[in-house]
User: Fold these one by one.
Assistant:
Number 1:
Amino acid sequence: MAALAVLLLLVAASLAAAVEGGAAWSFWPPPAGDDPYCLSWRVMVEANNAKNWRTVPPPCVGYVWRYMAWGQYARDVAGVADQIAAYAAQLAAGDDGLDAWVFDVDDTCLSNLFYYQAKQFGAYDPVAFRNWASKAICPGVPGMAQLFQTLKGRGFRVFILSGRDEQTLASSTAANLAAAGFASYDRLIMRSTDYRGMSSVVFKSAMRRQLTEEGYRIRGNVGDQWSDLQGDFVGDRVFKVPNPMYFVP
Ligand SMILES: [Mg+2]
């Protein structure tokens, strides 16, 4: 009888804590640290419900590192690559050589994880990022170079479209892509001085318009930011590579 009373007391206490906690409508298992909050935050980011955030929320810095470095990110990227390969396998690239894919660079082909981890996923700093990117030491995002080979093997053109500054980062970006195994792309398109200061959506829309006017049919478009995938001439299908590290408008 005493045991039953204690049990009822515990249930009542956990219900009260759950109600008091507001969002904590899960009674078992107990939350582990900040992970439930941070997982919800990451889902909001990936779904593009959270916009214009400048930094990872401080309680989630450790969570983002664990997500990125401990295997889940690599699994999620592999899932994206599988979806791309499955979709591409259904397409027949025309003999005219005009069926194309567009890929972003940063955190789509080349990973900036070590740069952002070193600054604790802090706000975007153009000078520091340029210094990092000019070193040309980004590792490849897992599986992406292989995906290039698959798409090329199926007869597609692959264009790399980056908001990186062309004047200062063209040679280091090309060298980094080559070092990370991205040798098979058709053209690297970067932000010329004419497009400095413009949003990624505006710049990338203009570049995709040019490709379209050259006659290319953009069958797929791959990026880690929604701003890679929105705007004009986005392509027949877009694929979002996960990135909970930063937001580019
Ligand atoms: Mg990117």
Number 2:
Amino acid sequence: MFTDARLVPAGTVIETDLCIVGGGAAGITLAREFINSGIRVTLLESGGEQPDPAIQDLYAGSDIGRRYEIFQESRVRYFGGTTNRWGGAWCDLPSPLDFETRPGVAYSGWPFPLSELEPWYRRAQPVLRLGPYGYALTDWGIAQENIPEPFRGPHFNVRVLQQGPITRFGQYYGPELRQASNVTVYLNANALRFDANENGGPVRQVDVGVLPDGRFKVRARIFIVACGGIENARLLLLSENAAGIGLGNEHGLVGRCFMLHLEYASAAIALKNPYANLLFQTGENGAIYKRLGAKRRFVSYISLSDQTKRALDLPAMRLRFQYPRLPQIDALRRLVLPQERGGNRMRDLASVIGAGPGLTKYVVGRIKHGRNMPPSPLAAIPLRFTAEQLPNPDSRITVGEDRDAFGLRKVVVDWRLSAEDQRGIATGTRLLREELGRSGFGELHSTIPEGEGEWPSDLRGDQHHMGTTRMARDPKRGVVDENCRVHGVENLYMAGCSVFATGGTFNPTLTILTLALRLADHVKQRLQ
Ligand SMILES: Cc1cc2nc3c(=O)[nH]c(=O)nc-3n(C[C@H](O)[C@H](O)[C@H](O)COP(=O)(O)OP(=O)(O)OC[C@H]3O[C@@H](n4cnc5c(N)ncnc54)[C@H](O)[C@@H]3O)c2cc1C
């Protein structure tokens, strides 16, 4: 059932079993799990079904650390959350090392191994409409013997990302929730603060604000916060007690260890053999592979191996090829395709003839492999990197003095990188250079600094906000426990990548949904 919170009389107190705050990927996935469960669910969503600048403005804040260029565009505040903006829906698994405690990496380690999550990863796949679970190279037609030597270990290996159809969670799953008699979605309902017992114990209620000045409360047996990786922390900090301590913040950890994935390019491989078989590595847009009867899109990428990360205490790093368009192919298209006619025919002809057997090989390959064929011959392949940001308590989310339309303190992002992050990028680049040279695959041309203290000039943080309510068994090292429950608050849970203890280089949403499904099972057990 859907209700517009603007119609709820001021002062109303809603009683429910489970209150989920936030209707994005995590909140909607959680709510769906309770349909027809007999458990009364109230989902509070800040926005409506369409974007509204006044509501989006509630996300505004300031950026005082290392410049976070896409801070304002990286989250979306209406039903469906940031899935209203995502353009790729690329999903992959963490590697087992991402979950392990690494003695040389401070704050590393989740409370359980990656394998613990496998049953829920399998259930999360269809939620993202990804099709059957399977991330082995052979699932995608890539044989080890077709991978060139430098990417077959020991330092680098090849992994895959799957792409689902772009699922806008609000549009796609909204109708199901609208039909559900035990789930009520309140649109335009902003959680303002949680009201908890002063000395620990349960949350009693959440105060809800409706623009411009509506107020009501929701009382529940269990609350789950699913407002995205930045707002999750802000909401706990805004729910401070009389002593000014935010909810779950007895150890000052809420908002700390804010992590993004680090994106940069600035490098290319000059291939020794321009006819090298590149079919193991798909470009930016991936390739289609017929898997278990259906055509599915995937991207294969090169990753620093777990073995090397473990041995050298390095953060994760992955790189993808950005295949350039071949001018000879464009010339050929202009010559043979009537709809592309134009340009200088003599010059195009000379370009095609000049390409010689390489072009013939490419055209034959293209016929054989369809659109999946990477361009060949290639002199150089530009690269695009993603590096892991390691947990760092100084990189953090706080609340400042500026106020939003409800009079609540706006978020302040103080994003910081560490010497360890820089060492990871420099060492990873150096290893790549050495491996390319050793194997004879090519030469790395790069402006990425390989010494101490300098960063790639184009480095920027991406849109994955992780770590601000991190998971750890020990309340002195994390905000939530292994079940995503806020330490010291018996009925408050967090969903989303704020709970990630480390972020690797994996795209987060598959893991967000996996943890949400696991949390739903846990909460059902508690409520039934
Ligand atoms: C351009 C772009 C591309 C992306 N591509 C990918 C990709 O390919 N693969 C991938 O894995 N991830 C990708 N992401 C990230 C992905 O969108 C997020 O990981 C995912 O949406 C996070 O889900 P969430 O539910 O935690 O947060 P969100 O989806 O952001 O949802 C949070 C919800 O909480 C609501 N809310 C906030 N505050 C309150 C409040 N006080 N009261 C009530 N409600 C509130 C918001 O309105 C929103 O609906 C991309 C993101 C962007 C911006």
